Amino acid sequence: MRLWYAALLALGAVLYLLCRFFPADLPVWLPWEFSWPEYLVASLTLFWFGRGLTILPPTEHPPLWRQVCFVAGIASFWIVLQTRIDYYAQHMFFVHRAAHFVLHHLGAFLIALGMSGPVVFAGMPDFLKPLVLSRPVQATLSFLQNPVLAPFLFVGLLYFWLIPQIHTRVMLDANLYELMNWTMAVNGVMFWSLILDSRAKPPARLSHLMRAALILVIELPQMVLGAILSLTEHDIYPVYTICGRVLDMTALNDQHYGGLIIWLPGTLTSFAAMIVVLVTMRLNEERQEREAA
């Protein structure tokens, strides 16, 4: 087992050195700016997932399609954070919005749909499991997934990071930029995990009707924000002009495309979540009917 961890560290060290000394010679699918935290989270999560599948009996494995969703979600995070896409996201507003759509919606949605937390937990080192199950960690998760606070955080973070003055500061500060990406990704996974839980209440935290209500709560503010950015006729984010756009596009077109990404794909994700909730509600009802019979 130690050899596997050593191999992951060695691979990370190689990527770090390549990005440090030969950034211009690397292909687009390698990191633009290597990040140890992002690398370790992605690689260890996938490693623990694979190890968990070998530890748990097949009867406790998620269905294959859920496993594929989980791996695809982790891979999508890696793609938008640790490839050349991240470079374009720092110089084009619409690419930045597309990256955050993956972090906050699509990729987080796939991870939550994968329902592979128990598998990852089974593959974790034994010394970490008590920490995950500790009262402070569980209390924090419970607080952040409170049905009143969860939709407020989901929409609030989206609006907060797009306040023009804050967004300008974030795009010029590497530490704040990473903080923004981390909060969007973690919040997205936590929110969609709350909504897409396939179990009935209990043991799930929310009833299916409450989940449907939360989807409606987050949908309208996203549509409003996307419409504002898509229809406004002045440049709200001049920081991209200051940094220099890397694609031949006007500031307004860049902003309008970014607004459309918030408006349309974000709305479609909510529709997809509603369909999943309705399907799981029906499946749980059928299961209860069979058990009663």
Task: Describe the fold and architecture.
With 293 residues, the chain is mainly alpha-helical. The protein has one domain. It has 14 helices and no strands. α5 packs parallel to α11, α9 packs antiparallel against α11 and α12 runs antiparallel to α14.
Please name the defining characteristics of this protein.
globular; about 75% helix; mainly alpha; about 290 residues
Shape: globular
Low-confidence stretches: none
Distance between the termini: 48 Å
Mean pLDDT reading: 92
**How would you sum up the major sheet?**
none
The share of residues in extended strands comes to under 5%
* E-strand count: 0
Structural class: mainly alpha
Backbone CA Rg: 20 Å
Number of DSSP helices?
14
How many domains make up the 3D coordinates?
1
Portion in helices: over 70%
Order of helices and strands: HHHHHHHHHHHHHH
